[in-house]
Amino acid sequence: MEKVQVGVVGVGYLGQFHAEKYAKMDEVELVGVVDVDPSRAKEIAQRYLTQPFFHHTDLFSKVQAVSIAVPTHLHHNLTKDFLLQGVDVLLEKPIANTLEEADELIGLAESRGLILQVGHLERFNGAVLALEGIVQNPRFIESHRLGPFTGRGADVNVVLDLMIHDIDITLNWVDSEVKQIHAVGFPFITHHLDFANARIEFENGCIANLTASRVSMEKSRKTRVLQAGGILSIDYISQKVSFLERVTHAGRTGGSEMLERKISVKKIDPLETEIRSFLQCVRTRKQARVSGKDGRRALEFAFKIIQEISDSSSFER
Predict the structure, then answer these.
(1) Cα angle vertex 234, ends 232, 240, to 5°?
(2) Do 181 and 307 contact (CB within 8 A), yes or no?
(3) pLDDT single digits (tens) 139-152
């Protein structure tokens, strides 16, 4: 198998892990890493036995595909430049700063037959993958994505930093238009929202309650799904799923009871799985599991939540 020539643009906290995964794959040649901080580029390049570059244009004509892990306000321009060069892109979430920017990137990728995959990592979590075909017509979804403040991701608010993962998963599970959104949020440490809660009512009757915080005592990533067949509980960190299945008894007495049903979960490295999925798309030219349109949909929904918070008295500017 011919090796795919790849690069990583932005090797800060997230980008370094992209470089690490690519460097370990036999079917990939990590051509180089890019960072505006020369010392950082050299450090990561030396660590993963590749070349350091200091401007993204240095990778033009050298790569077939790139991971882009730079601050959100740079997503549009850098991704556009690579798409214009015919390079497939795995872009960290959120897809862009605005819907207009997202639309341009999606249109450009489609018109040139290129792969644009957005890094909604939890779609590649072993627990989420194990639930394919099991989550059916959910009636209530409750998600908590909480953690202490680390300083990372502080250039955007908590909805775009953390909650957008649960937005993407919820929209992937619920096949319905949104009827109404109620949301509250507060800044605590940064000038952006550090805590947010959104209650979403869908036209089909499903309700989702999403909470995200980066000022909590402990790290937690959990979701519960209530549906006609029972209650699913998901722990993204441990990659475990429990299912209390509703079992209806036949006969004259009838009645139902809740029985625990075992769901097998293969614990995997979500980032490695995400990158391998991207590389498979690069080779086969099939649409990405998390497409540009998926990224745009999650971004649009996040903006609606942010606007609802901004319109409410809870958000003190």
Answers:
(1) 115
(2) no
(3) 999 999 999 998 77
Structure tokens at 74: 């740079």
Instruction: Please enumerate, as own/partner, the contacts of 310-316 that have beta carbons within 8 Å and a separation of 24 or more.
Output: 312/183, 312/184, 314/184, 314/185, 314/186, 315/184, 315/185, 315/186, 315/187, 315/193, 316/186, 316/187
Whether a cis peptide bond, with omega within 30° of 0, leads into 52 is no
Instruction: Name residues of the chain where pLDDT drops below 70.
Output: 153, 249-255, 313-317
Backbone angles phi, psi at 198, to 5 degrees: -130, 130
pLDDT 10s digits, 172-204? 999 999 999 999 999 999 888 999 999 999 999
Instruction: Give 4-120+271-290's CATH code, choosing from 2.40.30.10, 3.40.630.30, 1.25.10.10, 3.40.50.720.
Output: 3.40.50.720
- Which CATH code fits 123-268+301-311? 3.30.360.10
Cα separation, 41 vs 30, in Å, equals 13
